[in-house]
Amino acid sequence: MSIKLGDIAPNFQAVTSAGDIDFYNYLGDSWGILFSHPADYTPVCTTELGKTARLKYEFDKRATKVIALSVDGVEDHQGWIKDINETQYTDVQFPIIADKDRKVSELYDFIHPNASATATVRSLLIIDPAKKVRLIITYPASTGRNFDEILRVLDSLQLVDSYKIATPVNWVNGEDVIVPPAVSTEDAREIFPKGVTEVKPYLRYTPQPNI
Length: 211
Hints:
elongated; Glutaredoxin; 7 helices; 23% strand; alpha+beta
């Protein structure tokens, strides 16, 4: 199954390092991040899960639940978590899915045969509270993900859902945002009382509306 932006993320039941879960029940009304790892006890994955654990406060602020996946089993996950906590100076509290039968990996298209016939690629999905897929990023197994970028995209998506705006290149929370073309400049000046700067009729900026 190929998952695309805007699709409803399929539900599943799985065994994890924190017990059995139903994916939809786990997410509840929160935003979600589902990300896959090639294997347990691998160096790049160890740094990624450590970083994710250290960002717990940031994900909590954004009402976002995190869940990881590897094709290894629960016992491996639990032993690996001890290594992650020790080497990355953290406390992994989010579940890691044990996907030895590759059921979830195949459901979410995490196995790319031309990269590896057995290991999952380094994919990450952001899923909104309506269970819609809002971001898909896939890295090669050798390259660790940039979680500052994941937080940046979360901020952008949540802001876009609350206001009629878009975010420009390299935008970070607190910077000016873009008025979408569908909103006229006249309407924009009413919607955004902090002001609208028109560079071109199609390129207009306004201060971030929620600060």
